[in-house]
Amino acid sequence: MPRPAADPKTRPDAAQIRFTYSAAPFAFNISRAHTGDVLFTTVGHPLIFEPQFLRIKTTLPRDANIYGLGEHSDPFRLDVVNTTRTLWARDAYGIPQGTNLYSSHPVYFEHRPAGSTHAVFLLSSSGMDVKICEDGNGASLEYNVIGGVFDFYFLAGSETDPAEVSRQYAQVVGTPAEVPYWSFGLHQCRYGYKGGTFFPFFFL
Question: CB of 101 within 8 A of CB of 91?
């Protein structure tokens, strides 16, 4: 994936987020520069980095508003009590509720009650499970990846405009290609079909 070019005029003190870490035991925090609100923290969660298994875990607020993590048959706002999102694209008939679908997008958006929205994007093509859990010990989000490296993009988004983080994400991964004019009004889908026949639908 092409990497976005850095702006040479950007100063570290003008960044919207701050990165801090401790060396022993290793842990890091991503926080919002203006408010100090912690967006991602691995404090208290040991990091595992092996040749074929990587795990990193962050603490979440209680009853967090989490969206994204690929195409799936879950509700739009993900259940934070006990959700496992498998990022391993598939197209299969009769899949149950709460399972993975066609494409894998390892990015989640979190909207906070105060109005801010940020995103965390893990640039990885490896298969992974992302587990969201909330119990008596607190809430967390955990990545379990079968290879690669931890290549994270932390997007500050906005404290007032939830759509801003989507624009920032598009600057990283690119915008969709414009569809040809002849395809407007054409919808092709075989999700849920019992047979192998492909049916085009025209909506005029």
Answer: yes
